[in-house]
Design goal:
Blueprint: E1 7-11, H1 34-38, E2 44-47, H2 49-52, H3 57-66, E3 74-78, H4 81-84, H5 91-106, E4 110-116, H6 125-137, E5 143-146, H7 155-163, E6 167-172, E7 190-195, H8 219-223, H9 230-246, E8 249-254, H10 261-274, H11 282-287, H12 289-292, H13 296-308
Parallel strand pairs: 1-8, 2-3, 3-4, 4-5, 5-6, 6-7, 7-8
Helix pairs in contact: 3-5, 9-10
Length: 309
């Protein structure tokens, strides 16, 4: 299918220490903000911090201002983990979460809210009812459910999502017993794709970083330390086309964030989707040679050199 301007590709999060000198310049000009910088290259970013705690409204206001330069830009945000991992739906937490996202919603910059559930959240009557309860609790959001267990591919499970207007998140992850496989499922007008990497060795590793030794990466960094090959991304390009062919708006999020790999792969995906060179952060070109041949700046300079020769 032809490139749709309703496909938005971008990374998950933006505040990572290991992105310095890889994605972001070492010497930052006055007023530099990571979200504003990324909005020059991407039309979406997934807000990760909202998973760990409700946002402060003043921060949400700031982020809206920082992406003003890109009129197509839309945030997506993860739902607070108390709701998805702890099964707590306390009124105070719900109010705090909605108040924190309100500036983004009111500015029409919120594409959808992602409910990321653990592998243990399998399709059964209790979990189905809880999912419906979440939808009723947050009626103002376009909700998308990310399920890690393959029981949610059953016809009854996807039918529940369709009936209650909840989107389906198609994911790439290491495949173990009953892991959600790669899919191209759409259950609402919003399509969602999330790429986590395929780091099998560290995927289910426990949070005990001390036990792993001083030379090991922290468990979270190790889990997402994976760079997709062009062939692997090409397989997902086909699924993204399938999703976009059924959805009104499609969000593609790269979550393999360690050392900016999510940014490199997101740019490669955009290139695959549009078939043209893409703008890229200059520092990234030095760190990931895989990106240089698709970068607009690199191609322009190469053409100049050819002409000069």
């Amino acid at each position: 299918m032809p490139w749709s301007h309703e496909i938005r590709v971008g990374p998950a999060g933006w505040s990572y220490q290991d992105w310095r000198r890889v994605v972001y310049p070492d010497a930052r000009p006055r007023g530099f903000h990571e979200a504003a910088y990324l909005a020059q290259y991407f039309d979406t970013i997934e807000i990760n911090t909202s998973f760990y705690r409700p946002l402060r409204p003043e921060l949400a206001h700031l982020w809206v201002r920082k992406v003003e330069g890109n009129p197509r830009f839309q945030f997506t945000a993860k739902l607070y983990r108390a709701f998805t991992h702890e099964g707590r739906l306390e009124a105070a937490d719900v109010r705090q979460y909605t108040e924190g996202l309100a500036p983004i919603l009111e500015a029409d910059r919120l594409g959808c809210v992602l409910m990321q559930f653990p592998w243990s959240f399998r399709f059964n009557r209790e979990n189905r009812d809880y999912l419906v309860r979440l939808k009723k609790t947050f009626p103002d959001y376009a909700l998308v459910a990310e399920m890690r267990h393959d029981s949610w591919t059953a016809e009854e499970a996807t039918g529940t999502l369709i009936d209650h207007h909840i989107g389906f998140c198609n994911i790439d992850q290491p495949l173990f017993a009953h892991s959600m496989p790669p899919t191209a499922v759409v259950t609402t007008p919003i399509g969602y794709v999330r790429l986590h990497g395929r780091n099998y060795q560290h995927w289910f590793e426990k949070d005990d970083d001390e036990a792993r030794g001083p030379q090991a990466l922290p468990h979270i960094a190790a889990r997402y330390n994976y760079l997709y090959s062009e062939a692997e991304l090409a397989g997902w390009k086909e699924r993204i086309d399938q999703v976009a062919g059924q959805a009104r708006s499609t969000y593609v999020i790269t979550n393999n964030h360690y050392e900016g790999k999510a940014v490199a792969n997101a740019l490669q995906l955009i290139h695959l989707l549009i078939g043209e060179p893409v703008e890229a952060p200059p520092d990234l070109l030095n760190f990931y040679p895989e990106v240089t041949h698709i970068a607009a700046r690199y191609n322009y300079l190469y053409s100049e050199a050819e002409l000069a020769g």
